[in-house]
Design a protein that fits this description.
- The protein has 730 residues and is of the alpha/beta class.
- It contains 24 helices and 25 strands.
- The strands form seven sheets. The chain has a six-stranded mixed sheet. A five-stranded mixed β-barrel has the order 1-3-4-5-6. A five-stranded parallel sheet has the order 8-9-12-7-13, sandwiched between helices.
- The protein is elongated.
- It starts with a strand and ends with a strand.
Length: 730
């Protein structure tokens, strides 16, 4: 055992027979160098566990170090010395003494393990082979050092040399120093180098692939530029080239001057941008859209009011108010020839012919027709388009519809405008404000086209089921036309004129093969369908046609006649019932008239009295408004009890139960007020109410009656129910 000066190192591990040059500046390290020089002894170098520690303690040093010889030492400044150290052997540090001259360590050589000679020889060859693949990629190695590893024949020396040159962590370097078995060190190094070689090969492969891609792109660019030069020299610049094709089309368009300048600037860019660039495809798509729009293309309106009236009458039965508004527009247009297109909103229940009416208007005007469904649209970009910076950007539905119409003055149907919704992508209803404002849509700007387009000649027609769902600013820009449900008479007439001939044609039937009697049609309307429009009626007629077609096809019959008696054989039992008048005069039962989404109907309001304490009970699935209407009628009767010959204290001894059948059907609205009041007075006075009278009207606390709606439908329902008199507000 020897005692030698000890020099702590940061981030450096010294191996036997390997030289290393370091700069020494810490006082502790300088004292160790001075002691070794004065005593003419070797030096012990040992690595710190934590490289960041400026003043290490003894426990901060590893237990295994290297005995080194100081080959050369020179001062760089007063505080720094550069020293060249050459490793001699691995040593084990048993103890460290702190003296005036510095730290001295009691050390002894580390016992090394000898392996089998054959295994050592094989490992030497493998290590040289792998290191040979890596040596070219290690930075800072001189040409002499890159060849030096080939001179090593002993496994110990070779592993120490490779470990000192590889770019590995300090902890791993120290582990290599502490390992006494050279075979284990060699196997560990072999694994590290194999991994590094794989990484280098992969990097090389990626580099080659990238180089080929760049070379191919450059080659295509040079060839394309050469082709342009050749075409210019020949004076024949590709008649079929994409930029020239688009330029010719753009020059032929009737564009506003500002728009022409902007679009031609984009066309110039197309000539400059390489065809392989993503920007080329964006510009080309944009110019394709600009070229495809009907900038100056208009169809000539057929301003013949009589012809338009005939077309509308042929296509639709009823709907007089809508037809009158369209004919008014045409008449004014015929006289002034300068009126902007109105924006109409057809509002009504499903199946009453809103969409088909818009088609008829287009047919009467001989304009192109475009339908855009707005149901479920939640994205503002669906209306105004996307910015061109987005991948897959395209114009909004308005511009796309104009491209489809191929004219700038089509009839543009905005179907289901009340079904638009808003979410995080914006509010499409707000985007529609510019489209539907006659003062603004002269210069409608789509985000994709980015040029103003004149929509003032477009005849916009919107359809909606529920006007309350349309935002107020949007509704304010439209002229609202309410379309009510069809009456029974109108439905039967529509069936005879339109639905039956259409279904005959669709099912391959002739008029002589199938006859549907008028009384059967009325029964279908009343008891097999319940709707405001005629969609279900058309389906039921289609079902009758199919059953008749089957009988004719199998030879069962040659001619089918469907009468009221035979109707249940074809359609089964009726699905619905309609209100009928009472069979006899009753106390506390009055027939009321109701207006529903399916037309008019009658309902009987019943009042029953029972001993109690004046409790008022309402049943029949009544809405809030109808419940309040019943309470108003009850209060009116209590306030005017003496006038009707009723005991003023009846509410103290009797409970009142008001019921409106059918119990499962929701009911709401104020117009049952006088009916409830009449039923209450009848029950409390014991006087019967005539069974042939129906009534409707909203009652106030003072007994006044307010106006009602749906009078036509209510009157028809009363007639259908067999009533002879109806009581209505004057």
């Amino acid at each position: 055992m020897e005692q030698l000066p000890i020099l702590p190192l940061r981030g450096v591990v010294v191996y036997p027979l390997i030289g290393v040059t370091i700069d020494v500046g810490r006082p502790l390290s300088l004292r160790a160098l001075l002691a070794a020089k004065e005593h003419e002894t070797d030096l012990i170098v040992v690595t710190q566990k934590e490289t960041g520690k400026e003043s290490p303690e003894q426990e901060d040093l590893y237990a295994i170090g290297t005995r080194v010889h100081i080959a050369k030492m020179s001062e760089l400044s007063n505080e720094t010395v550069r020293v060249r150290l050459v490793g001699k052997e691995r040593v084990k540090i048993n103890a460290i003494d702190e003296t005036k001259e510095g730290w001295f360590a009691d050390v002894e050589p580390l016992e090394l393990v000898e392996g089998e000679e054959v295994e050592r020889t094989a490992l030497v060859r493998l290590l040289k082979e792998q290191f040979g693949k890596l040596v070219g990629s290690i930075k800072g190695l001189s040409p002499d050092e890159r060849r030096r590893f080939e001179m090593y024949e002993r496994l110990e020396s070779l592993t120490d040399y490779i470990a000192s040159k590889l770019d590995i962590d300090v902890d791993l370097r120290q582990a290599m120093l502490e390992e006494p078995d050279a075979v284990k060190r060699g196997l560990e190094l072999l694994e590290i180098m194999t991994h590094e070689v794989e990484i280098i090969e992969l990097e090389q492969e990626l580099r080659e692939r990238t180089k080929k891609t760049i070379e191919q792109a450059q080659k295509e660019y040079y060839l394309r530029e050469q082709m342009k030069t050749i075409q210019q020299e020949l004076g024949d610049q590709s008649q079929d080239s994409e930029p020239n094709r688009l330029r010719e089309k753009l020059e032929a368009l009737d564009l506003p001057e500002t728009t022409r300048k902007n679009v031609m600037r984009e066309a110039e860019r197309l000539n400059v941008v390489p065809a392989t660039s993503p920007e080329y495809a964006v510009i080309r798509n944009y110019l394709d859209w600009v070229v495809s729009l009907p900038w100056g293309i208009e169809t000539e309106d057929k301003l013949d009011v009589k012809h338009a009236a005939d077309v509308l009458d042929d296509d639709h039965y009823g709907l007089e108010s809508v037809k009158d508004r369209i004919l008014e527009y045409l008449a004014v247009r015929q006289l002034t020839n300068s009126l902007r297109g109105p924006i109409l909103c057809l509002s009504g229940p499903p199946g009453v012919g809103k969409t088909s009416l818009a088609r008829s208007i287009a047919s009467a005007l001989e304009r192109h027709f475009v339908r855009v469904s707005l149901g479920g649209v939640r994205d503002e970009a669906e209306i105004r388009g996307h910015r061109r910076t987005y991948i897959g950007a395209m114009p909004g539905r308005i511009i796309r519809g104009l491209k489809q119409a191929e004219s700038k003055n089509p009839v543009f149907l905005l179907d289901e405008i009340d079904k638009m919704a808003s979410d995080f992508r914006g509010d499409p209803a707000s985007a529609m404000l510019e489209v539907l404002d006659p003062e603004q849509n002269v210069s409608f700007s789509d985000h994709y086209i980015e040029e103003p387009f004149d929509l003032s000649n477009v005849l916009f027609i919107a359809t909606a089921n529920d006007v309350s769902q349309i935002p107020a600013p949007l509704l304010d820009r439209m002229e609202l036309i309410q379309i009510g449900g069809y009456t029974e008479l109108e439905k039967v007439e529509i069936a005879k004129r339109h639905l039956i001939p259409k279904q005959y044609k669709e099912h391959g039937l002739k008029k002589s093969q199938l006859t549907i009697k008028e009384d059967a049609l009325y029964e279908v309307v009343r008891r097999y369908t319940r709707e405001a429009g005629v969609r279900n009626l058309e389906r039921v007629i289609g079902s009758l046609c199919r059953k008749a077609a089957k009988q004719i096809a199998i030879g069962e019959k040659k001619r089918v006649t469907i009468s009221l008696k035979k109707l249940s054989d074809y359609l089964g039992k009726p699905k619905y019932r309609y209100g009928k008048g009472e069979t006899e005069d009753s106390i506390g039962a009055v027939t009321g008239l109701a207006y529903t989404a399916f037309g008019g109907d009658t309902l009987t309001i019943e009042v029953a009295l029972a001993p109690g304490k004046g409790k008022l009970q309402l049943t029949g699935k009544l809405g809030d408004v109808m419940q309040e209407s019943a309470q108003t009628a009850y209060s009116y009767v209590r306030a005017n009890a003496e006038r009707f010959g009723i005991d003023p204290t009846f509410y103290e001894r009797q409970d009142v139960h008001i019921h409106v059948p059918e119990g499962a059907v929701p009911k709401d609205g104020p117009s049952a007020g006088i009916t409830i009041a009449t039923a209450l007075i009848s029950a409390l006075t014991g006087k019967k109410v005539r069974r042939d009278i129906g009534m409707t009207g909203e009652i106030t606390l003072r007994g006044r009656v307010l106006p009602i709606g749906g009078l036509k439908e209510k009157a028809l329902a009363a007639h259908r129910a067999g009533l002879t008199t109806i009581v209505i507000p004057h």
